[in-house]
Every structure is written in structure tokens, then in C-alpha cells.
Amino acid sequence: MGNPELARDSGETAWVEYLQQLLASKLEAEAAAGAVRLSPVDGLFGPLTEGSVRYFQQREGLPDTGIVDDATWQALEDTSAATATTASPIDLRIPVQLALHWDDTTIERMLQDFDTFDLATHPGARLTLGSGAGPLAGNGSVQLFNREIPLWRNWFLTETTRLTLDWSRDHGFELGLDNEAEFGVRPLRNVDIFIHGDLDLKWQPQEARGTVDWGGSLNLRWRFDMP
Q: What does pTM read for this prediction?
């Protein structure tokens, strides 16, 4: 008997968990680059899992139905595909484009904005990076890593790291790493109780100085999928 066909809201919890583990393995590089967002291994076939399945199907040249059929199972369980992918050359070039937008302004106001321009606070600034660099997570911020790691029973650990780039006339460039972590337990199906921690590192090369900020909090979160 083969693997069952899975789709959105499938009730085969054990099989959905197996599917989510395979997706996490097959799409590890893309998820780290921010090209796709993976669901936690929770046995729930929601929109994140469906989106991951569609992304994988597109990558493998399969119809992107979001339904895990025999062809999708075969591609997911094919160990040779991962070997071929890791052997491919990596292009480290990252094209960057900065776009500025004003809804209602004048030439004089635009020139004033240029005199005091700050990438992080300009309301119309958008820093776009090419594929493979990760999605924009705010002005001048790129997500490098985002993964939930299942621990024993219902416990979990989530880690997120973002690379930030800011520029202002007063301080020049500012580089940074914004790190977040969540450690907690899932006592009910869609309820999380967790400790959230932040560690933000900033460095201004022009002034040769940096800062370290950290903090933490206890949180309760209710998760649900919109239809």
C-alpha cells in the first residue's frame, strides 16, 4: 500500500508530519534564503504546508496543485535529487535596487529629505534584493534564517536571524544582526506558551562603534489558519 494522497486540511496527522519533515529537508536551503516559508512539524496541513508543497512541485516541474499525489511523494522521497542540488554551483552575486516613493510632496521637500535621508525611517524607501538573498523584512532588512525546531513531545524552539543595512547622512552605514528566539510548549493544538528573547547587534564602520541590545518576555499565542 502506497502513501496516501494529502491535501489541505487532511486529517492524516502522522502522514502530514512525515510530509512536513520531508519538505523541511528538501527545501532547507530555500527556506534559509527566505524563498519559501515552512510550516512547523505539527501534523496540520494548513496554508503554509500547502504553499511549501506548491513551491516544491514548481521546483520539480510538477503541476503545482498543492495536492501530494504519487508523483510528489516520489520526488520528495528521492534521495538522489538532494545530492544533485548540493553539487550545483552557487552564484553569490546579489543585485540591489533602492526605490524611493512620495505620495504627496514637492521638489523642495524632496531635496530636504535627501539632505537628512535615513533608509530605516524614510516612509517610502524600499530596498529590493535579487532572488536567493531572502525576502525584505522591513526597510533595509533581509531575513537570513527562520526555522522552528521540534523538541521532545510538545516543546519547540524557533530561531530567526535578519541582516540589517541602514544609512544616514549623520552616521553613514550601519550594519546589524537582529536575532530572535522562542522556546516554549504547545499544550493545546493551536496554543503556544513561550519565552521570547531578542539579541540585536549594530555596527557603524564610519564611527568604528557598535551597540548590543537584548531583552526577553513571557508570551501566550493562539494560532489559527484563515480559510
A: 0.39
